[in-house]
Design a protein that fits this description.
Layout lengths: L7 H18 L4 E5 L7 H6 L7 H8 L4 E8 H5 L3 E2 L4 E2 H14 L3 E10 L3 H12 L4 E5 L8 H4 L17 E5 L7 H14 L5 E5 L12 H9 L7 E3 L1 H7 L4 E3 H17 L8 H4 L11 H24 L5 H14 L7 H13 L3 E5 L5 E5 L6 H14 L10 H14 L9 H12 L3 H9 L7 E4 L5 H10 L2 E4 L12
Parallel strand pairs: 1-7, 1-8, 2-5, 2-7, 5-6, 13-14
Antiparallel strand pairs: 3-4, 9-10, 11-12, 11-13
């Protein structure tokens, strides 16, 4: 059983209390910039065992009667078809998905704001689609000389040109499909407009990482650096907090760099400076909810190694620069870990050396490791899944739970009818075949029922797996890493 190191119940209680307290400090109106993932926060759940991926959503549900959500989407991301890396979907589509998820949980989505707005065809199409669906859409414009010309920013030519987002709830959560969407600028623009209307409102920031009251080089904070190597984020001691209070607090470079600008904007708006440091702006209580430091340290170190492999594969795909890989290597050194600490890596590579073909290894929650090889019928990802399911169900490895007579028609359909070159079944196809077999075979049924026990398990592939296999592993909750190479030397890979 997975050891826990984080008290999620305490987190929900203390975090909601802290936010309510901050709302009260600003006369009942708070714009809360939500960094990171509002839901599906699997990074947090991996480095803080016990943290639920939807903890933030649960927390907002506790405040549902006070919450209004504003989703910020950068026009340049719409125009460039920017893709969310973990899900492989465009930012504009992710915004639509976010609306659906929030509404399904009983949270009020008040509007979508398009930042860096320019009336281009793709942007207008997105805007029209939202309005057709009944969503209010507001426009915030590019401000030349931002963020250095404070006089222009806080003027009719700057924030004054932006649409005023009409909100009706005490807590306005400003979130986005990903980084660089302009969340902070949206909050500042709203403070400008609220002040112009004689209304009191405040600003705060909610970031889970880095955790401000953990040491700078704590593995949990280093794991954040590993997760943002493409952004080149760097954790650092908050110099403003140290100067103001004589206390050490951890923040990251972007918040520290922008703090003087924010302070100047606050002063210019007219309400004075509410914060003495970037750490003061935050409301994160995660650090107070860690119950077992040893557990979270190990979990964070494991995540750092996984992030190295993710960076190396992104580099091989041509998505990230070499500097991201070098940064990931540096973080591993700082955390005192290496790829040698990931046991499934050696098991997979050993299997490949024996068979001469790509292989996969999966480590079960009890420490057992099962492997999968490339065969005529199955790819290594599919083979490893089946072997893992059989091991969990207590089924002998050599016992067939999917008859060749079930697999072969699927292969025939793939190659003969659908025109695929690779006849081997991928993970999703194999799981469907397993479900078909489960209708008549009790062993197949037992194996299928055991699949839920794979959540949180570790896996490694000796090659970059196809997207369909990666998605299947993600849906099963398996932490997959891959060697940064493809099975073939082809230029195009799915």
């Amino acid at each position: 059983m997975r050891k826990l190191g984080f008290d999620n119940k305490k987190y929900l209680e203390t975090q909601s209390e802290q936010i309510e307290k901050r709302i009260g400090e600003y006369g009942g109106k708070l714009y809360l910039e939500f960094g990171g993932k509002l839901y599906d926060d699997y990074h947090a759940s991996r480095v803080l065992p016990g943290f639920a991926p939807d903890s933030k959503m649960q927390m907002l549900q506790k405040l549902a009667d006070k919450v209004e959500i504003v989703i910020a989407v950068n026009a340049t991301d719409i125009e460039s078809n920017r893709v969310r890396g973990d899900l492989g979907i465009f930012y504009d589509n992710e915004a639509l998905r976010m609306v659906d998820i929030f509404k399904s949980l009983g949270l009020y989505v008040g509007s979508v704001v398009i930042t860096m707005y320019e009336p281009r065809a793709s942007v207008e199409a997105f805007k029209n689609k939202l309005e057709m669906l009944g969503m209010r859409v507001f426009r915030h414009y590019y401000i030349s000389e931002y963020p250095f010309n404070i006089g222009k920013i806080v003027s009719a030519e700057g924030y004054g040109r932006n649409d005023y987002i009409e909100t009706s709830h005490p807590l306005v959560v400003v979130t986005a499909p990903g980084p660089g969407s302009g969340k902070m600028a949206v909050c500042m623009s709203q403070l400008y407009h609220e002040h112009a209307r004689g209304k009191k409102a405040g600003y705060a920031k909610f970031e889970t990482f880095p955790i401000w009251n953990l040491p700078l080089k704590h593995p949990v904070n280093l794991a954040y650096e590993a997760a943002t190597v493409d952004l080149q984020d760097v954790n650092m001691i908050d110099p403003y907090h140290l100067e103001a209070y004589g206390k050490v607090a951890v923040n990251y470079n972007r918040d520290v760099e922008t703090f003087p600008v924010l302070n100047a904007i606050f002063q210019k708006i007219g309400d004075g400076t509410p914060y003495r440091s970037p750490t003061d702006m935050g409301v994160n209580m995660a650090g107070y909810c860690i119950t077992d430091n040893e557990v979270v340290v190990k979990a964070a170190r494991d995540e750092i190694v996984r992030r190295y492999y993710a960076a190396a594969c992104a580099r091989r795909k041509g998505i990230w620069p070499e500097s991201a890989v070098r940064k990931a290597e540096l973080v591993m050194e700082q955390a005192l870990v290496s790829t040698r600490d990931r046991e499934v890596v050696f098991e997979a590579l050993d299997k490949e050396a024996i068979t001469g073909m790509p292989a996969m290894a999966i480590q079960l929650s009890d420490g057992r490791i099962v492997r999968g090889k490339t065969s005529d019928l199955l790819g290594p990802s599919a083979s490893a899944l089946l072997n893992a399911a059989k091991a969990l169900a207590g089924i002998p490895k050599r016992q067939l739970i999917i008859a060749p007579s079930v697999i072969e028609p699927i292969q025939s359909l793939k190659v003969g009818t659908l025109g695929n070159r690779n006849p081997r079944l991928h993970s999703d196809e194999t799981l469907i075949a397993l479900a078909i077999s489960a209708a008549t075979d009790p062993s197949a049924r037992a194996a299928m029922d055991a699949l839920c026990e794979l959540k949180g398990c570790e896996a490694h592939s000796t090659v970059i797996v196809p997207q369909v296999d990666e998605e299947a592993y993600r849906r099963l909750g398996i932490n997959l890493t891959c060697e940064p190479r493809y099975e073939t030397n082809a230029f195009f890979h799915k």
